[in-house]
Amino acid sequence: MLVPIDWLKDYVEIKEDAKDLGDALTLSGSKVEKVEVYGEEIQNVVTGKIVKITKHPEADKLSICQVDIGAEEPIQIVTAATNMKEQDVVPVALHGSTLHGGLKIKKGKLRGEVSNGMFCSLEELGLAEEGTCHGLHIMDTNTPLGVDIKEAVDFGGGVIEFEITSNRQDCFSVYGIAREVAATYGRELKGLNTSYKTSGGNVNDIVKAEIKDSLCRRYMARAIKNVKIGPSPSWMQNRLNEAGIRPINNIVDITNYVMVELGQPMHAYDRRDIAEGTIIVERAKDNEKFTTLDEVERTLTSEMLTIRDGKGTIGLAGIMGGLNSEVKEDTTEIIFEAANFEGVNIRLTSKELNLRTDASGKFEKDLDPNLPALALDRACALVEELGCGEIVNGTIDIYNEKKEEGHLTVSISWINKFLGTEIHGIEMKRILESLGMATEINGDNLEITTPTFRSDMNIREDVAEEVVRIYGYNKVEATMPSIHATKSGKSEKMQLNDELAKVLIGSGLYESIAYSFVSPKVFDKILLPADSELRNVVEIKNPLGEDYSIMRTTTIPSMMESLARNYSRNNKECRLFENGKIYIKEEGKELPNEINILTIGLYGGVDYLNLKGVVENILDHFKVKSAKFERESENPSFHPGKTAKVVIGREVIATVGEVHPDVAENYGIDERAFIAVINLDKLYSFIKKNNKYTPLPKFPSVTRDLAVLIDDEVLVADIEEVIKKQGGNLVEEYSLFDVYKGAQVPEGKKSVAYSIVYRDPNKTLKDSDVNKVHDKIVRTLEHKLGATLR
């Protein structure tokens, strides 16, 4: 935002030069981007009168001018400008002069004719933003000739460019910055001229207004009659140019002047173009066509707020008026509009239409709904000051939910403790009141009334920040932070995750990390059914793209992506694990359930047993003895005959198996891949917190081998279940050491051999003790599973 310093001087005394002012405002918390002092680099530019203009004999677009610069003889200037005439006084850059931006001017020839310099526009003098004015700067005819341009033209005190944060809507204006200057220097903030006289009639007899959508919080309007359209005075044009706005005519310039001065955008309608004398604020119709002031036809949607009359749209609310109701040269009656709109809607509409204006840039910050009244008063005062119309009695003001002042009570001692200062309460009161906040001291408390233009003042920390930035950050002495360190370790879950990582790394795996954002297309790649609950996902409101548009409900796609990436880079073997989260929506809850998942992925020189071994290492490390591996054939992402689920009690804590060949093919992996998905929240819940020490056994063990013939479809897990159950407390451990099919084994059968260790912790076992239990195991295998002893 560009703020002319001379404009600030209307409302606060400024003794300092531009650079010192910029430094002071920076220290008090305003972000100053640039300080520009006009005219510093302008050299050898004087005033001159064009005494004669002739056409260039060799160029239709050039003119030869004889210019009186107060010397003995006129000088000759060749120019392409067209907006000058004889007897006009203009700035003349002579040979060896310097213009804005360091541009050097020398005499030369243009198409064979000598030119001893050039004429200047306001842009070339640095008095206007690029593109905001056109042609030469024509000066008053009584301007002395031959004088330095810096004496003849008011270059002003310069311009300061600010970057205003979105929470400081009050600073998006000259008057808001003037308030900051007054507070920074402890000076008086002068009031605005908002007084004016009204003539007969009443605005309510001229136009009616109605709000039909809550996106408009307030709508105000006044009527001006006997309007005289013409150029605004030079002082107003200069200020607008310095603020980066091109002057148009007196009425439009008044609306822009008020917008820059107070931060409240306004609009002026030609009364003749408001059909049926009716103004309605409502949403547009889908696919409605509307031509804005920039002569571009735009397609609207029902999400966009418009200003309409009795026949159609006449303005895009908060953004730009329509070409069908603009102020024209013969306009004699206007309607001034000042309103307040919901900021988010203005921002979305502006973005959708690719139409960003000065008005939309302010409205999208959520302006104070009490500001339109002040803006209308100021605009009417300027109409009277410029003598360009008469203000009709009355005001249209629709304000359904009035915004009230806020109230805060903050402890003085708390502020000082928080800041590390010893600022007196009276000084705090002075600072806050200089910023527009009425404040009373009640014992140790500040009773603060926050104005509606300071919607950022909500908590005591906000008050402390206002106090210290005006008091001066540079006045706060450096102190050591009063922090008391306490010794604390990692949480139990963090410790378990560390142990888990050590087990996995010790098993030969590398850790991988994946995004929690995935594409909706991954569900099809892992063959997930259309009605699967895992497709009920949390969608990202502002995704980076479709590939990162939802929160994952399964980690299989992420692991498959990692395996595929390694496979595509010709890595022959890959062993990975990821400790991450999935996000499951639950009805009635705003936020999804976050479930911690361990995912293991392998390919290259491995089979199902390698993957199962890694999972068993985890279970053994955490001493989870009751886990069972059961056949799993219902998971579509896995091979139906080579997949198991890990069950503890009635809880399924994991799925372990070979990836379905079609899934592997979808990810471009041409060999067998294996994945384990373990619910860590469930696994950790089965870990015993208090493990008891078991002394070394006093009595010897007895080892027996058991080999049986059994049907091929019988799982070894079923055999182990019998051994464990029938062996009771005497079976210390058992291990499978042989599975055989072939010669001497009938078709459809297999030979399974176990080594079983028996031990009694209280005595030495006899053969009869072991035989009794061993025979019981054999009989149960024969009866329950159809096994025969080999």
UniProtKB/TrEMBL annotation:
Keywords: Aminoacyl-tRNA synthetase, ATP-binding, Cytoplasm, Ligase, Magnesium, Metal-binding, Nucleotide-binding, Protein biosynthesis, RNA-binding, tRNA-binding
Binding site for Mg(2+): 456, 462, 465-466
Compartments in which it is found: Cytoplasm
Requisite cofactors: Mg(2+)
Catalytic activity reported: tRNA(Phe) + L-phenylalanine + ATP = L-phenylalanyl-tRNA(Phe) + AMP + diphosphate + H(+)
Ranges of residues in domain FDX-ACB: 697-790
Annotated InterPro entries: aa-tRNA-synth_II/BPL/LPL (IPR045864), B3/B4_tRNA-bd (IPR005146), DNA-bd_dom_put_sf (IPR009061), Fdx_antiC-bd (IPR005121), Fdx_antiC-bd_sf (IPR036690), NA-bd_OB-fold (IPR012340), Phe-tRNA-ligase_IIc_bsu (IPR045060), Phe-tRNA-ligase_IIc_bsu_bact (IPR004532)
An annotated Gene Ontology molecular function: transferase activity
EC category: ligase
A GO-annotated cellular component: phenylalanine-tRNA ligase complex
Residues covered by the B5 domain: 403-478
E.C. numbers: 6.1.1.20
A single GO BP: phenylalanyl-tRNA aminoacylation
Family: Belongs to the phenylalanyl-tRNA synthetase beta subunit family. Type 1 subfamily.
Subunit organization: Tetramer of two alpha and two beta subunits.
Protein's UniProt name: Phenylalanine--tRNA ligase beta subunit
